[in-house]
Amino acid sequence: MNRNPNHHHSPARPLGVLIHGAGWVAGQHAAAFRNHPGTAVVAVSSRSKSSADRLVAEVGLTGARTFDSLDAALACEGVDIVCVCTPQQFHCENVLTAAAAGKHLVIEKPAAISPAELRWMRDAVNRAGVKSIVSFVLRWNPMFQQIKRHLAAGDLGELFCVETDYQSYNSDWWGGWEEGRRADAGVSAMAVAGCHAIDALRWFAADGEFEAADPIEVFAYAGGRRKGKSVQYNPHEQSWHEGTPLEYDGLEIVLVRFSNGVLGKVAVNFECIQPYAFPVRIFGDRGTIRDDRLYAPGLPGHDGWRKIPGIRPDSSDVSHHPFQAQADHFIDCLTRGVDSHCNLADAVKTHEVLFAALECYRSGRPVALPLATQTPI
């Protein structure tokens, strides 16, 4: 592969995609690339070949070869893109291997489980000159896109405050629970799932339509009642049962100061007894957005709160999320030889907020960003 980062891909043949990992979210990535006219899923690899075979059958990936190792799959002819869908503790190793092989990268979140891993991955992608995208898929949610258009148009005036939350009782109804609940693999509630809310906070704290704000300081608290307890709730069955405990705090509340002067608050709540919710509040000096409602007295025809069109991100079901739009965007970036606004270098800034929060719990002091290179793993 040509490793020139400005290389434009010719549409002469479809770009070949390797799906690595065959779990909960891999099927959505596979279906999105199967559906794109400019790509073909040519291979699926997993820790067991049987799970790769199952994904191929479930998604209908005609002609895709299956493997039980990433190295073997990378040797498959025609692979241009590797979609990393393995559990988060394997992402760094997978990305380093795929980047060294000159493959473009789609990386599931969280991208890494330590600041050091993030740096290694970013450096490997830069050395290889390949393109990347981290799957903060809500940037392509239709309601989020409409909100960004309002911000870019100045409908809220000058932004000064943004608040986002991830509220979902995470337990063993989720297929990734046994690894995700562990402190050594899942790391924290923010890492496992709340990072979506951190990314949304950055996304809405910048008024450019395709721009995310740069965080410069973090202060945070962690708490809740679930850590170490075996009793857990299943929100889909609305019942309690005995299960394996969460090894980290289920509630995190993080304050963020951005370089543009906007202040942010983001929380992840794995303990709330309620349906899944993703609240959004954006305040400007000319208007306010609360979830899917806009209040902007300066706009023509203003008569109070008005509905923002689009699907609210109020479901934990991955099939509800806009993976197709994300895949379409990435292929467009590759075709034009440009970086995604959600590439690994940008995603590092989102992840550093959650790692700064962990440092804050240890030190009890605000943490400056970007993180120092000696930040603990």
Helices, strands, pairings?
Elements: E1 15-20, H1 26-35, E2 39-45, H2 49-59, E3 65-67, H3 70-74, E4 81-84, H4 91-100, E5 104-107, H5 115-128, E6 132-134, H6 142-152, E7 159-167, H7 177-180, H8 189-204, E8 215-223, E9 231-234, E10 239-242, E11 251-258, E12 263-269, E13 280-284, E14 287-290, E15 293-295, E16 306-307, H9 323-336, H10 344-363, E17 367-368
Parallel strand pairs: 1-2, 1-4, 2-3, 4-5, 5-6, 7-12
Antiparallel strand pairs: 7-13, 8-11, 8-17, 9-10, 11-12, 13-14, 14-15, 15-16
Helix pairs in contact: 1-9, 4-5, 5-10, 8-10
Can you describe what's shown?
With 377 residues, the protein is an alpha/beta fold. The protein has two domains: 15-130, Rossmann fold (3-Layer(aba) Sandwich); 139-316 and 350-368, Dihydrodipicolinate Reductase, domain 2 (2-Layer Sandwich), CATH 3.30.360.10. Helix content is 31%, strand content 22%. The chain is built from ten helices and 17 strands. It has helices spanning 26-35, 49-59, 70-74, 91-100, 115-128, 142-152, 177-180, 189-204, 323-336, 344-363, and strands spanning 15-20, 39-45, 65-67, 81-84, 104-107, 132-134, 159-167, 215-223, 231-234, 239-242, 251-258, 263-269, 280-284, 287-290, 293-295, 306-307, 367-368. The chain has a nine-stranded mixed beta sheet with strand order 16-15-14-13-7-12-11-8-17, covered by helices on one side. It has a six-stranded parallel beta sheet with strand order 3-2-1-4-5-6, with helices on both faces. A two-stranded antiparallel ribbon has the order 9-10. Helix 1 packs across helix 9, helix 4 (91-100) runs parallel beside helix 5 and helix 8 crosses helix 10 (344-363). It is globular, with a radius of gyration of 20 Å. The two termini are 33 Å apart. 47% of the residues are buried. The model is unreliable at 1-7 (pLDDT under 50).
